[in-house]
Amino acid sequence: MAYQKLGRLSGPRRALLRSLVTSLLKTGKIETTAARAKAIRPLAEKMITLAKRGDLHSRRQALGFILEEDVVKKLFEVTGPKMEGREGGYTRIIPKGPRRGDSAPMVILELVE
Asked: Measured between alpha carbons, how far is 36 from 52 in angstroms, rounded to an integer?
């Protein structure tokens, strides 16, 4: 399967993924379930790759996905140039343990320095 459904219909799933990617790029680190982290990792890495290209078309593509304009500005002015020497692998998943209540495996998803 090319993507994970995360127990949602396509519209709510897309909204969830967009908001998680926006939060990750805004703060640099989020705590979420392992399934969600694995689902948003390729999307976040694609946004960083767009920021590394840095042209107008890339910026407009990022604005079409990321929910906040100031996050896109930070992505293109700070995060993209910082990742210039890397060929991918911009994020890191750190296991945290099970969540109280439903025992879902929790992780910390963060941007690599």
From this structure: 25
Give yes or no for a contact between 111 and 24, defined as CB atoms under 8 angstroms apart. yes
Report the number of distinct structural domains present in the chain. 1
Residue 97, amino acid: G
Is the distance from CB of 7 to CB of 29 less than 8 angstroms? no
> Tokens in use for 10?
């396509």
Residue 59, domain extent = 10-111
End-to-end CA separation in angstroms for the chain: 31
Report the predicted TM-score, pTM, of the whole model to 2 decimal places.
Answer: 0.93
Per-residue model confidence as pLDDT tens digits over 45-58: 999 999 999 999 99
DSSP 19-49: HHHHHHHHHSEEEEEHHHHHHHHHHHHHHHH
Could you tell me which residues are beta bridge partners of residue 90? none
